[in-house]
Amino acid sequence: MSDFISRFWSNYVAVISLLSILGCVILLWLTARKRVAPSADNTTGHVWDGDLREANNPLPMWWVGLFVLTIVFGLGYLAVFPGLGSFRGQSDWTSRGEYEAEVAKATQQLAPVYAKYTAMPVEEIARDPQAHAIGERLFMGNCAQCHGSDARGSKGFPDLTDKDWLYGGTPERITESITKGRVGVMPPMAAAVGTSDDVKNVANYVLSLSGEPHDSVRAGLGKSKFTVCVACHGVGGVGNQTLGAPNLSDKIWLHGYGEAAIIQMINSGKRNEMPAQERRLTEAQIRMVASYVWGLSNSTAAAKP
Amino acid sequence: MTRKIIPIASSNPGAGGGEEVGLYEATKKIYPRSVCGMFARWRWAMVLLTQLVFYGMPWVEWGGRQMVLFDLAARRFYIFGLVLYPQDLIYLSGLLVISALSLFLFTTVAGRLWCGYACPQTVYTEIFMWVEQRIEGNRVARMRLDTEPMSLEKLVKKWFKHIVWIGIAMWTGFTFVGYFTSIRELGMAFLQTQMGSWEVFWVFFYGFATYGNAGFMREQVCKYMCPYARFQSAMFDGDTLIVTYDPGRGEPRAPRRKGPDPRTMALGDCIDCGLCVQVCPTGIDIRKGLQYECIGCGVCADACDTVMQKMAYAPGLIRYDTQNGMEAGWSRRQLLRRVLRPRVLVYTAILALLVAALLASLVMRTPLKVDVVRDRASLARIAEGGRLENVYRLQIMNATEQPQQYLIAASGLDGLSVSPDQPVGVEAAQSRWVAVRLQVPYGSAPPGSHTVHFSIREEGSGAQVSEKAAFLVPR
After folding, report:
1. What is the pLDDT of residue A300?
2. ipTM above threshold 0.85
3. Which range of residues forms the domain containing residue A160?
4. Which positions in chain A touch B389 (Cβ < 8 Å)?
């Protein structure tokens, strides 16, 4: 109701609600006073199927009692809970408050489950089947939307089951990535590299780093131009986990495979973001997810589900 | 112009003058007289049978667990050797359809058998009235007790009755909850006063409903709440057996001395003793013909037969008969022949077919269910070795009570491979989500959506389930 500037609609709803209830009371009162002369055969005169007649039997008083109870309940409800226009009710109940109370209660109930793992090292949590199940559920609810339900990602979304890490695969680095999120930026480098021919040469050099099919003449020419890339990707394109610069010398192609995809990346750059989870998940939950994710790429050490 | 003066008349013109009535009426309490006879014995037999089943069933064990348990918290439903999932709703629907059709069939053949002999409302009312009679005495004693002023004796009798009633009602509520949560654990929890709040709520709710409906509402439930009385006429026809009074034989009714043949006095067989009205649990006069209040219990027939015997008249002035049979004076044989009429045969045929279909599908049921959900995160991706990969999530539901291993296979595209290719374990009566990857060589299938089939095989029994899915190849 706060969307409206004036209180007119709130009052309108409240007045109609109360008038309707009042109408019910008047109807009950009038019909309770009314007396009718019964017809000779105690029917209303309506006949169906040739011989089915509607009898005119009085309603039992206890049923009227139910009507009265309904009215009393209705008025009581409107006094206690929000319903009468923008009147908030005596109990100040809101669906949001109810939700928050339920979440607080659930968190409290779950606390002992998580408490078991606060002191346990990540490597050990990853071996625990119960922790694995908790981590999996959290992953399905919060991470699988981008990284896939098998955590193998897709184009633009890193595979979490391999040993290739943009920001490092230690438990501490994974926890940090989940908590704070990550923003990876590849600036458009075309101007720094040179002509479009130079860009194509650099792309072929990048392909040659991981032994993919490439034009070796162009790769040779591109090698000198790659110096502008070394600042982030390092000598030989091995990447830099402090910056989140991908390793270009392995066979993992997060943003697309082939000469065209690499040229596109050099020309246009890319900004890729992993959103921070610290406001969505509790510290204990992040610990469980981090252990689960760490276990995915250290499966010899982790629990077999 | 003269002013007309409306004469002031008495607002209560007295009986016979078409007395005006209100739109509402206070309920008159019914004090049914107890009765012995064949139908009363049948009714008690049904009370004992239904209650033995209801109160007894949750205590019966089957292979180390409760035989019938509808475990709502875990969403598993155990019936004898079956483990049903919420996805097996079709069986419940089938059971309800069969119940409805049985009701139609029984009603068409013999009226409201359900109401008179098996409906919980009737059965619990019967039990509660028995308690009432044991404590407060017979009909006359009960009526006297209710009109006399409060005394210590009255207080004790009333209190004692309500305590026994509440005891039965609470036991009923406890048993009801025992179908949805293990009754033995519930009993232990009760003894240790550790029942859950919802369990307590439902025990009290169901107990209160039993107490109120069987102790106080009684025939009011049948008359005003139950829809069955209102649509029974749709299932009745002239050949339906109903509890009926034979006016041709009974009228004109009048009290008389035992002895002379009523025909010589120009009287019918009805001696107008009113016992049929006094025994009626819904308080109607069966001599007025078929009424919607009649629950077909037949106690009036029992009462009348006792009287006929005392008068040395033939029994059956009030009896189970059909309208057509009553008018034409048919014999039992003729009545029975009319039972096999098209309406009955059609109901029976449909019912038999449905029962057979339900039993067959339960017997041939695969103890395994699978749901295939395409992964929403990725359409398709290139995996190592230049293979095109789609990801699915399979929910494998183990409907047996042993842990099982399941082998996942897929078919529908050339060179299709499945990962994991190892069997997947699922605990007894549990379900598990498994991420499954399908791969085809890149370029082996044209762009678009392709139908593939997952087949999941239980390693022990070889039971197999096949599910369709879509494999997407991007442009």
Report:
1. 61
2. no
3. 103-181+275-297
4. 152
